[in-house]
Design brief:
This protein is mainly β. About 5% of the residues lie in helices and about 40% in strands.
């Protein structure tokens, strides 16, 4: 699976591959654990585009909303504007969550935004009601 941050000119600014590896645990009860790692594939920054992924939550363990599901609806990413000026994200999109920024989406200088796969589910678990999302 890939997560990419794409600007309005269809330039891929950052791209990550989500991989998983099933590892046997040392618990004798036969339980196993799954570990995930993020592999950075590439990063392309141009002078007017220094918004980056600062945190990625993939495959969350919280089972309060969907005890039998994979909890995919609780996946989220955080982006950070590294510049000292506001950035217009109009036309940018995140294709792993399938979210496109609306016209007039301005991220302030040095600000962080959270984009959730399901903002309602994310708010119910985290208490953070201002996440963006589809």
């Amino acid at each position: 699976m890939f997560d990419r941050l794409i600007d309005a000119r269809d330039t891929v600014l950052q791209q990550f591959r989500r991989t998983s590896k099933l590892a046997k645990s040392r618990v004798t009860s036969g339980h196993s654990r799954r570990s995930f790692r993020m592999e950075r594939l590439e990063s392309r920054c141009v002078l007017d585009s220094t918004v980056v992924f600062s945190e990625i939550m993939y495959h969350p363990r919280d089972t309060t909303l969907h005890p039998t599901d994979s909890n995919e609806s609780l996946e989220w990413i955080e982006i950070h504007n590294l510049m000292s000026i506001d950035m217009d994200l109009s036309g940018w999109r995140v294709d792993g969550i399938d979210y496109a920024f609306a016209p007039g989406s301005i991220i302030p200088a040095d600000a962080y935004w959270v984009i959730a796969k399901s903002p309602a589910d994310f708010a119910a678990v985290s208490g953070m009601a201002d996440a963006l999302g589809p």
